[in-house]
Amino acid sequence: MARNVDRGERGGERGGRGQQRRGRRRHCQFCVSRVEIIIDYKNVNMLRQYLDDRARIRKARQTGTCRRHQSRLASAIKRSREMALLPYIAD
After folding, report:
1. pTM given for the model
2. Do 48 and 10 touch, CB atoms closer than 8 A?
3. What are the pLDDT digits (tens) for 27-61?
4. Domains of the chain by range and CATH?
């Protein structure tokens, strides 16, 4: 019994098992904003947005930041942890 390949049941889809998920691509808010947002280790309120509930640094695909700004965010978070402005682990 032959399957109908034209409907996309097998082979024609990306992702293998028919799990296509196409949404809008997130754009880095640091690249998009006209006003220059400075990533600084002293700006604790801004840095907390990039931590999850267990005080870990969120991934770039979750926050939508580009590679360049994600590495700057990570180094600023690490520096503010060293200065005891941000926690290493959540309470």
Report:
1. 0.71
2. no
3. 888 988 877 788 999 999 999 999 999 999 999 99
4. 38-91 (4.10.640.10)
